[in-house]
């Protein structure tokens, strides 16, 4: 069976639409967004952790390409999942990192230099924003609050 010339033309059009480097485009967008933001709170959300004591560990590409933007963009917090545990980490930049990837699967956890707290227990996080602070609560599978952290607005 042969495809029609129109189908080939459509495939060529779709391929051309993805030309370039989408990763570079995304990094440019992120940098511009953080630089221009006048938001009271600057919180980024992604899938992969910057730092992690979980089974997948740190994400080197985030550390090399994104971390400088987080620092210069005066980011308050980064929330992610990926590793199947609950963690609170921070570094000298003042950015707080929250890993909430423990919905159902139990992963692993080891304390890292950036670790403030971590546990392997199914659960989730709740983030409450106020004008002067953000309160993050880690909740286990039984609905119990097991750790709380507060960021005061800089």
Explain what the structure shows.
The chain is of the alpha/beta class and 154 residues long. The protein has one domain (5-152): 4-Layer Sandwich (Purple Acid Phosphatase, chain A, domain 2). The protein has helices at 5-17, 22-36, 60-72, and strands at 43-45, 77-80, 86-90, 96-100, 115-119, 123-129, 133-140, 145-152. The model has no long low-confidence stretch (mean pLDDT 90).
Structure, briefly:
The termini are far apart.
From the structure above, extract its key features:
single chain, five-stranded mixed sheet, 27% helix, Purple Acid Phosphatase, chain A, domain 2, 3 helices, 154 residues, alpha/beta, three-stranded antiparallel sheet
Instruction: Identify the CATH class.
Output: Alpha Beta
> So how many helices?
3
Helical residues, percent: 25-40%
Structural class: alpha/beta
Q: Supply the CATH superfamily name.
A: Metallo-dependent phosphatases
- Can you list the strand order of the major beta sheet? 1-2-4-3-5
**Total strand count, please?**
8
Low-confidence stretches: none
What is the CATH architecture term?
Answer: 4-Layer Sandwich
Which secondary structure elements does this structure contain, and how are they paired or packed?
Layout: H1 5-17, H2 22-36, E1 43-45, H3 60-72, E2 77-80, E3 86-90, E4 96-100, E5 115-119, E6 123-129, E7 133-140, E8 145-152
């Amino acid at each position: 069976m042969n495809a029609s010339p129109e189908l080939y033309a459509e495939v060529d059009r779709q391929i051309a639409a993805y030309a370039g480097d989408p990763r570079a485009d995304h990094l440019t967008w992120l940098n511009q967004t953080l630089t221009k933001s006048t938001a009271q709170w600057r919180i980024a959300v992604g899938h992969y952790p910057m730092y992690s004591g979980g089974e997948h560990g740190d994400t080197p590409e985030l550390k090399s390409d994104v971390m400088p933007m987080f620092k210069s963009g005066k980011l308050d917090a980064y929330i992610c999942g990926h590793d199947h545990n609950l963690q609170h980490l921070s570094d000298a930049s003042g950015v707080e990192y929250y890993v909430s990837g423990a919905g159902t699967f139990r992963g692993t956890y080891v304390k890292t230099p950036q670790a403030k707290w971590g546990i392997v227990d199914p659960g989730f996080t709740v983030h409450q924003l106020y004008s002067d602070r953000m309160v993050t609560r880690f909740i286990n599978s039984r609905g119990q609050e097991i750790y709380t952290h507060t960021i005061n607005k800089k």
